[in-house]
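Sample intake sheet
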Amino acid sequence: MSSAHPVTNDGDATSPAVETHRHSNDPIRTRITALGQRLSLPTVKRALGILEGEHPSGKRGSGYEFLDERFYEPFDEARSIDWKASARRGRPVVVDKEKTVTSKVWMLLDGGIEMTGITASGENKYQVAFNAMRMFAVLSMRRGDDVTILSANRDGVIRVPIGGGFVDFDRALRAVSKRIAHAPRDINGLMRLAKRIPDSRALIVIVSDQTGWSQMQLNAIRLMRRTHQVAAINIIPMNPFSTSQTPHGTYDAQTDRRVPAFLRVDKSEYEVTTHRAFVDTRIKTDLEHLGVTYLSCTSSEDMFNKFVAYLSSTMHHKDISSGVK
């Protein structure tokens, strides 16, 4: 008797149940950890400021406290130079200042069974989701933020506050992986969780797949943006009509039958790919219009590369992208 295959909303399915994440064999997790350890604290703070929508402007004033004093570098804005400090030291000096924030990061994970599907790389969507959350966690914890994981599906809500460092975050992800994906997703419930977050100006990271993001209510996100910074992670599932197949194959969501070979042709694959690209562009445009940081990815490696490339290009900081391949 064959085992049951959890289905996804995109018409494909994978092997049973969400696996406990084998982080010891995950090369992307290793790169994430190395990145967090290699970056200096001022660079981490600037990177998180960008993800929180606070692009470098050189503006000073209230809400900032002295953090560090360093020599001007090519990626710094000229107007960030402190001329009094520069005169004392005989060369351009930049004074890094730390903005006063609540130091709270809330990670909202789509806990539906739909997230047990696979991506083009053969990874479970949750594996990609967890690595995306790790990217934010390794930087946030380096900054000293409090991190909480929230997950919702129609069975209810899971709330896991992180009491320690990155190792505790990994342990929390493994605990969450055993308690999610036993019921369909509940996007409205996920949005209700976001509304109840008490910390003003916290960073909220929302992780779902493309269909989940298509169901998000823009008005709810618009209201959320009035009091919080928001980052959106969109995970693109495998094209069910792709000619390249995983060892488990691809299964129809309604019948639990394998997608037959005569449907896995270039025309079907092209139509699905084109439609998904259109949907992804629409979601990106809508969310970025609201001031949301948006990252869409097809695998853990794609997520890592886009995350690093986004920070590197926005900060004009070549050191972020070097040495982490």
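Comment: The chain has a mean pLDDT of 79. Residues 64-99 form one domain.
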